[in-house]
# Entry
Amino acid sequence: MQMPAKKNCTAESPAADILVEMDEAYTALKQYIATLGHLLDAPCVDRRQLTTVRLQLASIRLVHGAAVARAYRYLLQRLSGAEHSAIQELQVTHQRLLHLAAAHTAQWTLDAVEANWSDYKKTTRALLHSWSEKTEFERQRLYPLLQRYA
# Structure
């Protein structure tokens, strides 16, 4: 699977551009999470495939993170009150999950994964579940706000 291609930005609708970026990243992220989920079903680790999907997930996390950060900046400049506070809370949650993912990757080297495949599978499934829930929550909260300005 390839990374999403960056669309040409239009100065007329930055919110629409952010929506396209986020949607492409979200779609790719879901596919990579599903691929990793299938790898986790195996009785033992496939180092090559695991390395490939982990690199893909790391790359798309960067793309997704940049799009989400743009959305936060864009919306925080335009919103106030409860909506502004909700976006700030989403930002904190996003940063927390990024830190968890980085710590998970640092802890689970390929040697550590091979040494304890069952624990890796359990902790990785929990992280993937959290990541999937967060991205779905983003879609439910950020998309309608961005569509307001698109």
